[in-house]
Write a sequence for this structure.
């Protein structure tokens, strides 16, 4: 599971809308109900918002009878998705605790997403202790890293676990595995 959140409070979404001449769709009312260009741009923008919004969050702004224009949907999404409300914190928490690291992708990027999610929660007064985050990291390890997980857990008392140290173990294991794979492939190629 990847953690990816488009924060509607960030400058990036607003900048992208402005660059594409769409900012007015989230700040203004439609000039008139028959402006075909406005309607086409509105539909395109709604598609982009739906694509970059988690499905469970998008459903909060899906009702066209309640949210008749893109501006109204945008305002609802900002409240639900980008703020410090319970839904946003819950989604981030679920993403953080439900993540399983994928050894087919770079661990560094996946670990950074986990660190970012922890920071987001902490910035919203939802503190995660080092011990809790250490356990989250260990739980997120793929099955093939079970020896590393056992080694980490056997190295001392729980109070001594450090997220930084665990992440270093993970990255070292990834490096060792990739070097081993390169050597194995190299031997296979040389034996042909």
């Amino acid at each position: 599971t990847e953690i990816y959140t488009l924060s509607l409070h960030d400058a990036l979404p607003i900048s992208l809308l402005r660059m594409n001449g769409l900012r007015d769709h989230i700040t203004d009312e439609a000039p008139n109900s028959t402006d075909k260009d406005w309607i086409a741009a509105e539909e395109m923008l709604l598609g982009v918002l739906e694509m970059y919004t988690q499905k469970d969050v998008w459903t909060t702004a899906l009702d066209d009878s309640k949210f008749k224009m893109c501006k109204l949907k945008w305002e609802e999404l900002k409240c639900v998705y980008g703020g410090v409300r319970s839904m946003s914190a819950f989604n981030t928490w679920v993403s953080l605790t439900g993540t399983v690291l994928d050894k087919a992708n770079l661990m560094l990027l996946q670990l950074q997403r986990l660190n970012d999610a922890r920071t987001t929660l902490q910035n919203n007064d939802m503190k995660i202790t080092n011990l809790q985050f250490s356990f989250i990291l260990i739980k997120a390890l793929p099955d093939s890293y079970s020896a590393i997980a056992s080694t980490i857990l056997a190295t001392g008392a729980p109070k001594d676990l450090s997220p930084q140290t665990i992440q270093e173990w993970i990255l070292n294991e990834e490096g060792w595995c990739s070097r081993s794979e390169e050597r194995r492939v190299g031997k296979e190629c040389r034996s042909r």
Summary: The CA atoms of residues 141 and 185 lie 25 Å apart. The first helix runs from residue 11 to 19.
